[in-house]
Amino acid sequence: MAKSIMVQGTMSNAGKSLLTAGLCRIFKQDGYRTAPFKSQNMALNSFITREGLEMGRAQVMQAEAAEIEPSVLMNPILLKPTNDVGSQVIVNGEVLGTMSAAEYYNRKKEMIPHILKAYHALEEQYDVIVLEGAGSPAEINLKENDIVNMGMAKMAKSPVLLVGDIDRGGVFASLVGTFALLEQDERAMIKGTVINKFRGDKALLNPGLAMLEKLTDTPVLGVVPYIHLELDDEDSLSERFDRKAEVGLIDIAVIHLPRISNFTDFNPLEAVPGVSVRYVKTAGQIGNPDLIILPGTKNTMEDLLWMRQNGLEAAVLKHASAEKPVLGICGGFQMLGETLRDPDCVEHGGTVRGLGLLPSTTLFEPQKVRTRVSGSFGPVGGIFAPLSGVKFEGYEIHMGRSISTEVLNTLTSITAFGEENAEKADGSYQNNVYGTYVHGLFDCEGVTKALVRSLFRSKGLNEEQVFAVDIRAYKEQQYDLLADTLRKNLNMELIYRILEHGI
């Protein structure tokens, strides 16, 4: 039976996901079969397993750190917000339905059997499980039906590490305040605290650390410095959206849609020397990029209307009319067509005019497409002709299907995992506008290299200087760096004692 330890935070984005990943890597390095677990995740970044099931991207990242295959057992409940008051509820990788926040809250207890079944299945397969909480355990308005923080810790009988983010300020108050708002038995489950994202001289913290230990009667396990890592982000709190990076030789602008999803698609592009990736929310921010990307979204029609209202649609159309490339992925691909129809109110309802850059129409249907795929680009015209014949792996995750309204230039041919004899066409292109349903394309070194070299060539730059990063090897380096940093700054001996003796 696996031993467990749980990482909770005083707030969202305190660094729980990365600390969980780092512990997974450390335990793996030390010879333990280790798996991550988060009972309930709210995020628009998701992933499709080999079985065609959907799970949160953060647990995929943590599974990579533990060097194991991602499984929905690691994230049995996934909530994908569709608007400010409702989410699509995914249980064990399958869509249960769309619920308002109040409806889901009232049905939370129905999720417990699914959570426990998944957790116990992991217990049978691994030596150590590193659990991750969500938000804060001190959200007293939600504690009654809690299934992800202290409620989960109790179900798993797991000791808890409480993490505070000093970069935002008020870390001592947030840690002590969290203890104050917990019940006595919950406070007893916290076996150590961690100060995260510290910049500066640690010696200046010592008086505060001593007082923190006195006020909480709990040891401080360490102070983790601010680490600059390039790993997949969990959700829309990603710091990469607010970066003011210097524009590179190649400037790529990604439209930061209100319901942007799977923006981890573009992380490999950021790792290419000479390439900058900017996330833009207004027409004024677009500037004069070499490539505009329309990313995936949880609500294609509403985000298209948002673009239409704030001037981004006009900016994209102007860019395309100048014969500069536009790439749409998943929902972004659907936007590029002529019409989007939703007769069953799967997303927005009704019919919305598309950007009209590709001769296709999209029909939204209740059944979600969820498949891992492999494939290759066909004969590709325009600026991205060097993509022709390049192979890739990725996944589809979308509502709706797109149908051509005239003879269409197919972009790729793909085959679903487990259906090797059922190749099908995917995506399309016209002039310098390209669209595809496949996520994860740029994780493939050949795709990234061909696309970036095309952009270098279009600007008269030396394309031979372009080398794409082996993203898998790069991630391995990042996980090792994370683990090394935690080993140096956390009391791992005490953490192992906590893990061994539990609560």
Report on this model:
There is one protein chain. By secondary structure, the chain is α/β, with parallel strands linked by helices. 31% of the residues lie in helices and 30% in strands. The chain contains 16 helices and 25 strands. Strand 4 (46-48) and strand 5 form a beta hairpin. Helix 1 (16-29) packs parallel to helix 2 (57-65), helix 1 (16-29) packs across helix 15 (471-489) and helix 6 packs parallel to helix 8 (206-216). The protein is globular. The relative contact order is 0.12. The model has no long low-confidence stretch (mean pLDDT 92).
Query: Which whole number gives the mean pLDDT?
Result: 92
Task: Compute the separation of the termini in Å.
Answer: 16 Å
- Can you tell me the residue ranges where pLDDT is under 50 for at least 5 consecutive residues? none
Report the major sheet. Answer: 11 strands, mixed
Radius of gyration: 23 Å
Secondary structural class: alpha/beta
Strand content: 25-35%
| Number of DSSP strand runs | 25
Q: Number of helical segments?
A: 16
Q: What is the general shape?
A: globular
Helix content: 25-40%
